[in-house]
Amino acid sequence: MIIHRMISVSRLISQCNRSSVITTKVQLINLNRHLTNERLKHTTAFKSEKDKIRTYIVQRYINYVKNYKKLLQDRFPTAIHMYRVFSIGIKDFLSDLKTYISLRLKITKDQGFSNMTREEIELFVKMPSDMWRIAPVLILSALPFGNYIIFPLALMKPKKLLSSHFWSIQQRAEFNVEDLKERLRYNRPILRCLQAKLELIPDSEVKENWRRVLALLGSGVHPSVNEVLACKELFCKKPYHLAYLSYTHMGHLLKMLGIRRSLFRRKKLKYRAFLLLQMDRAIEREGGVDVLTTEALKNACHIRGLNTRNLANQDMKDWLQQWISVSSNIDANAYSLLLHCPIFFAYNHPQNWVLIY
To answer: Which ranges does the record mark as transmembrane (predicted)?
Structure first.
């Protein structure tokens, strides 16, 4: 019996030890989980702090880059202005140059000007002079240290050394007025050349019509479209056909149209008349003067010799419509009449007189 009791006590002690071990293991497992959770919390908190620091550094860097341009502009305004002018100007110039080359190829493939828009023809006319004007700057800037000399010099004389691609809006308006003012100086000499040949015309009805046109111009008004067209035959033969104009007369016409004088004056005038006629036909193809924007109207009038400063859109449309009404009745034999249209419709215009006087 004593032995049985000892066995029972031994079993009881064994069961107590086993339950104690299990309890201890459970406690260890819970402790391990707790430590793991705490470690994860600390790790997450550390990563969160690290991400915040990284985000802060990146944001500060972005703000620095954004403000760096302003910082440079404040400290080096001339250099930044020069960079901006030439970077934007070169980009626009190369874009127009590519368009110009494609237009030359289009003409070579006998598609001619009939498939070209008004803007393309105007670009085609303008680009050669722009290319000649900017050529010295591009050539000298390619030389070692040449850009340090030519770029500041070009900024000092943008009208002579840079094309319109490098001009600001204010400079474009100012230089256009100056160019037109120079061109208008030749209006009066051209009118004198026309008047000088009046008596060479045989007595006829057309001579009287022409005498009336000259009288209107001399008295400060302009002839109507019908009055100009009534004298068309005088510009298809003697004395006002291109083949019969004097060398001086042709020189004045070239300067009035903004073209440099050269030895081949008659050829240049014929080509310019052809281009003007193509521009007019392009305007008609695209819907007439009523669909032109304000900028397009100003450019079209400027090309044809009218000062558009402070001029309303409707006034520009009316003036341009007069011109196109004449050009629509002109062929290659009457190019001389088209070249003299700036005299017929702009000689006494108040906007032009403001520039001259």
So the answer is: 134-155
Sign of CA dihedral 323, 324, 328, 334: positive
CB atoms within 10 A of CB 268: 18
Distance CA 50, CA 163 (A): 54
- 258 CA to centre of own chain: 20
List Cα–Cα distances, 270 to 165, 188, 265, 350, in angstroms. 28, 21, 9, 29
- What is the secondary structure of 240-270 as a DSSP string? TSGGG--HHHHHHHHHHTT----S-HHHHHH
Question: What H or E segment, with its residue span, contains residue 351?
Answer: helix 350-356
| Cβ proximity of 154 and 137 under 8 Å | yes
* Phi, psi (degrees; rounded to nearest 5) at 331: -120, -175
Per 3-state DSSP, what percentage of the chain is helix, strand, and coil (rounded to 5)? 80, 0, 20
Nearest to 322 by CA among 301, 302, 308: 301
Element (H, E) at 149: helix 147-156
Q: How far apart are CA 210 and CA 187, in angstroms?
A: 18
195 near 217, Cβ under 8 Å? no
Give the rounded distance of the alpha carbon of 156 from its chain centre.
21
283-339: pLDDT as tens digits: 999 999 999 999 999 999 999 999 998 899 999 999 999 999 999 999 999 999 999
pLDDT, one tens digit per residue, over 200-249 is 999 999 999 999 999 999 999 999 999 999 999 999 999 999 999 999 99
Q: Which helix (H) or strand (E) holds 213?
A: helix 205-218
Report the Cα–Cα distance between both ends of the chain, in Å, rounded.
146
